[in-house]
Structures are given as C-alpha cells and as structure tokens.
Amino acid sequence: MMSYYCDLAVPGVQSLTPYQPGKPVNELKREYGLEHIIKLASNENPIGPSQLAIDAIQNNLKELARYPDGNGFELKTKLAERHNLQTDQITLGNGSNDILEFVARTFVTANDEVIFSQHAFAVYPLVTQAIGGVICEVPAKDWGHDLNAMLARITDKTRLIFIANPNNPTGTWLTEDEITGFLQQVPTNIIVVLDEAYFEYAHAPEMGFTEYPNGIELLTQFENLVVTRTFSKAYGLAGLRVGYGVSNTEISDLLNRVRQPFNVNSLALAAATAALDDQEHIEKSILLNKQGMQALTKVFSDLSLSYIPSVGNFISFDLGREAAPVYTELLKLGVIVRPVDNYAMPNHLRVTIGTPEENKLFIKALHQALT
Ligand SMILES: *Cc1c(COP(=O)(O)O)cnc(C)c1O
Q1: Is 186 near ligand 1, meaning CB less than 6 Å away?
Q2: Which run of H or of E encompasses 315?
Q3: Best mutation site among 162, 233, 263, 265 for ligand 1, i.e. most ligand atoms within 8 A of its Cβ?
Q4: How confident is the model at residue 17 (pLDDT cuts 50, 70, 90)?
Q5: Fewer Cβ close by (within 10 Å): the C or N end of the chain?
Q6: Is residue 243 lining ligand 1, measured as CB closer than 6 Å?
C-alpha cells in the first residue's frame, strides 16, 4: 500500500529527504515534561522583532478579510529606496526560501545540473530534486565554499549555482574579491543565487568583517546574479515568512510569473515594511549577537572544543566525537540546539546566539552535558 503512491510520485520527489527543522519548544515540553526551555536551534533573533513591526501587525488585524496587496507595493517601494533599486527588480517571497524555489523552477528542468557546496543550506538540494534537477555537490574547503572547485564543476548542463554567504550551518563567508572573481568566470547563461540571509549580521562593520560584500551592489556588474535576503533572521520575523530576491528586471519578471499571486500575507507585508524603519533595533540585535558570539567562542576555547568561525548569528562547534548524545543531554536540560549530521557534520552541533541569559543557560547546560 505505502509504496503504491510512492511509485506514482515524480522521481525527484521519491528521493527527497524532508527538511529537518529545529525542534519546536512545545514538542520538547510534551516529550520531557519540562517547563523552562530555551530554543537556540533555528537562528531566530532572540529579542524578536521591532516594536514598530508589532504595532503594524496590530493595526492591520482588522483588514484580515481582505487579500493582501499581491504586488507588495509599499514594501517594494521601501526596499527599492533602501537599496537604490527599481521596484521591478524585486521579487517578494514567503520567506526567502520561496525565492530559492522560484529560481529553480524558472531556470531548471529535469536533468539540468545545479551546483552548490558540501555543507551548504539544505534547501538547495530540496528545490533542485523536487523538479528533477541533478545535484552537483562540490566538496567544501575548510568547511566553506571551494569556489575554484565549483567553477571546475560547470558543464554545459549547468543552469544554476547556489552560494550561501555566509553559509548555514557552517557560518563561513566569502570576501568581495572572492565573489567577484568567481562571478567573472561564470558564463552569463548560468544563474547564480547569492543567498544573504544573514547579511545584517555579517555586513556590520562593528563585527569587523570589512571584506564581506553587499551582493546587491554587485548586480550592476553581473546580469546573471540573484541576491536573496530575508526578514526571518536579524529582523526577527521568521514566523511571518517574508523575504525577497533582487535581480535584473528581466529575471525578476520571470520569477514573478511563477510566484503565487498572494504569496506574502498582509501582516507580513505590513510588519516587514515597518521593520525597515527601525535601524536601531537591527543595531541592537547585531551588538547582542557580537557579545554572545564572543562569550560562546571563549567557552568553546576553554573547553578545548574547536569551532568554525562564523559571521552569522549561530556557530557550529566540534565535539570531537559523535554529537548526538550531547544533543540529547542538552534537550533533557531544556536546551534545544541543532544537530547537523544531515549536513555531513556528525561531530558538530550548531547553536544560535541567544540573549545573554539564554547564552548563560546554554553554557551551563553544555558543561553539565559534557561531564
Ligand atoms: C534561514 C535561512 C534562509 C531564510 O529562510 P526564510 O525562508 O527567509 O525564513 C535562507 N538561507 C539560509 C542559508 C538560511 O539559513
């Protein structure tokens, strides 16, 4: 019975492994009967969204009977001003994952090849396989993208390349010179997606990563480039699902053709638009992240655990042995982090930087779990 419908499914879907999300807080509460739980598993902003976003949601509640603005006029207008773009270069998504899927569906068909790095974000193989595309995973170098090896992997079947900068779950990043050097060598008939989900954290000069590029500023040089950003991470709006892609207008016109007409809901549109006005909140979030990152890396060093330096709001650390038992111990102590064995990193765990209190609880639990 069970294999009957499986055999009927298109081949790409038959072989798909579902995305593994971080464990929800309520699930852990049910399983272990725990009251106090901290979740540092999905790279969410620990202080949540801007109050302006919350107010905007409240103000829009009475309009819920209406369809949202399918063109997202206000959000696009504000994004265009912010980034010095034309509004028709922007494609709005139900999260930036939506955009990743639009690009795959627009440019890739069965048996076309899609290149991405080993240990790269799990959604790239998902959107590729679902449409019968061929996954070309290129071995990583020092946990990060090996751009030369990725270039060498290009064939006349290559249609799309995904680059995560920084990458999740490794936190590794590429400099402006590395990215531009790479893009100069990719033929213009191959689309390159530069996934900048953690842009706000990585780009902050106060973090000291001065060579981290702004992909949107590279669009004028590279016509085959699509840059994706999200409101799920630094903006603290993961639950609402809103992200966007930026490209040349010809590509965004195509992406908008495969988009569902009302893919971004009205509360998400209102909240994201309002959130853009609160730069102070972003700066506060970046500072908190920087302090938390320093606190955690110090603890890893003290515990002689190696870690992968990260410019995101998360960090993957190496237990030097199978990480799963430590993950389970942490769960019992009410701390949810992220196993990354599905990223071929069985000895690592990924932890999201939390509030100072959450970081302290994580550190305490980690000490306990290791003894
Ligand atoms: C979190 C994340 C995203 C964003 O997903 P949304 O759909 O915008 O919530 C995209 N890319 C990477 C690498 C991420 O880690």
Answers
A1: no
A2: strand 314-318
A3: 233
A4: confident
A5: N
A6: yes
Count how many domains the chain has: 2
Expressed in angstroms and rounded, the spacing between residue 168 Cα and the centre of ligand 1 is: 8
Ligand 1 in contact with 101 (CB < 6 A)? no
Distances (CA, A) of 290 to 200, 209, 294, 310: 12, 12, 6, 11
Is 318 in the same domain as 348?
yes
126 shares a domain with 144 = yes
Domain final position from 278, 299, 314: 278
Going from the Cα of 7 to the center of ligand 1, the distance in angstroms, rounded, reads 31
Same-domain pairing of 198 and 298:
no
For 222-280, what is each residue's pLDDT tens digit?
Answer: 999 999 999 999 999 999 999 999 999 999 999 999 999 999 999 999 999 999 999 99
Q: Taking a C-beta distance cutoff of 8 angstroms, is the pair 360, 46 a contact?
A: no
Least trusted range by pLDDT, from 16-30, 103-117, 150-164: 16-30
Rounded to two decimals, what is the model's pTM?
0.96
In one-letter notation, the amino acid at residue 8 is: L
Amino acid at 19: Y
What is the tens place of the pLDDT at every residue in 64-113? 999 999 999 999 999 999 999 999 999 999 999 999 999 999 999 999 99
Unique residue bearing structure tokens 């990354």: 340
Q: How far apart are CA 317 and CA 170, in angstroms?
A: 9
- Nearest partner of 99 among 244, 249, 250, judged by Cα: 244
Residues 102 and 91: beta-carbon distance below 8 Å: yes
- From the CA of 121, give the closest atom in ligand 1: 13
